[in-house]
Amino acid sequence: MHLEWGIIQSHLGEVSLELVNAEIRKLPALEFEEAWREKVGEIPGVNSLVFQAALISLGSSIRAELAAPTTQALEEATARFREELASIAGTSNIDDDQDRGKREIQLELLPESRPLGLTFEDMALQVRNAFFGAEALRIQRGRDDVRVMVRLPEDERNTPADLQRLRIRTPAGAEIPLSEVAEARIATGPSAIHRRDRRRVVTVTADVNEEQNTLEAVIGRIESEIIPTIQTDIPGFSVSFEGEQRQQADSVNALTRGFIIALFVMYALLAIPFRSYIQPFIILAVIPFGFIGALIGHIIMGLNLSMLSLFGIVALSGIVINDSLVLIHFVNERRREGVPMEKAIWEGGKARFRPILLTLVTTFLGVLPLILERSTQAQFLIPMAVSLGVGVLFATVILMMLVPALMMLHHRMDVLLRPGHADQPA
């Protein structure tokens, strides 16, 4: 292994450790990350400490935007949310964007200012004009504007005591010291304020170790336990999931819509040449079994479903539809020749078994090297290969039994409902 460290900025540092190739070492990178995190522990004075062992980083697994009615309530809710999130197994690198900035002087009006008619906006504007300056004149010099600012002399705006001695003009025209109408305190303000839909929000991020817990289980616990508990004590508290969850949900919704549209188009394309409303359903009935086969493959391989898994399932649907299509097409051709349905199905199964089997074997063997590949670069493609290979294997076996059974069931229903038409060739 190779260790490097460096200072990115004056307040940021990074330590990078390069491990040997995954094909050689026996220790997974995630286990090394967990051990490193436990050994380091908490470092005093560090605001954020992040450990990351992912080859390709797509951002934090959890990205939640928290909102509350007041700033104080939001800070309390953020602290409780982070504490509850840390108690869930498998979560790490919990952080938020509520970074503290530099020390500043914060002003707050006293109750004594109310009879004077002084508002916070009036006071803040006068303080700003005194120390920063108010624009009194703007002069055009060639292509540039020169602004003339009026403010207190430098020796009267250097210390907090100068702020206390600043005289504030009331709406009635009287001038009184700032210390009599406002309280000044030194505090640390946020370096940035984030808002969404005109509400101040704080974004909490966290990573999830998939070997200890699943992202879906963590999100489910947050929605069912953590959020209701905090909402009980802090009314108006709300959480919306962004980042990976929002992108994944949008991708799944788009893929689902596209797949449903594709099914309608396929049904139309099959119904026109077959001149039947039922046979396209028989062909499409194999698709769910391909999905079941893909799930079985993920369970056997110990993989979680991902977007690439869904891509493999979509590709799998086209293959099993082709296999069903060639079988039903042969049966229909034999029926047109006057062969009884039982014999046509039997002959179709024998005649189309070889091409369907060859499609199964070639597809499975084509993705088998990718399924068995253990290199780091191929890991994110393995779920798609498992969905396609194992799904085809399972769906084809079901297809050879399901499609003939459904065709025979369709024929017998025709015999019962339309005795005069059932024996006619399709």
Fraction of residues in β-strands = 15-25%
> What's the gyration radius in Å?
35 Å
List how many beta strands DSSP finds.
13
For the sheet with most strands, the description reads: 5 strands, antiparallel
Instruction: Report the CATH superfamily of the largest domain.
Output: Multidrug efflux transporter AcrB transmembrane domain
* H-E order: EEHEHEEHEEHEEEEEHEHHHHHHH
CATH architecture assignment name of the largest domain: Up-down Bundle
Structural class assignment: alpha+beta
What is the typical, i.e. mean, pLDDT?
Answer: 82
Overall number of structural domains: 3
The global form is elongated
Q: Please give the count of helices.
A: 12
Q: Can you characterise this structure?
A:
The chain has 426 residues and is α+β, with helices and mostly antiparallel strands. The chain has three domains: 1-58, no CATH class; 102-190, Multidrug efflux transporter AcrB TolC docking domain, DN and DC subdomains, CATH 3.30.2090; 246-422, Multidrug efflux transporter AcrB transmembrane fold (Up-down Bundle). It is 51% helix and 20% strand. Strands 3, 4, 11, 12 and 13 form a five-stranded antiparallel beta sheet that branches. Strands 1-2 form a two-stranded antiparallel sheet. It has a two-stranded antiparallel sheet with strand order 5-10. Helix 6 (244-274) runs parallel beside helix 9 (307-336). The chain is elongated, with a radius of gyration of 35 Å. It starts with a strand and ends with a helix. The model has no long low-confidence stretch (mean pLDDT 82).
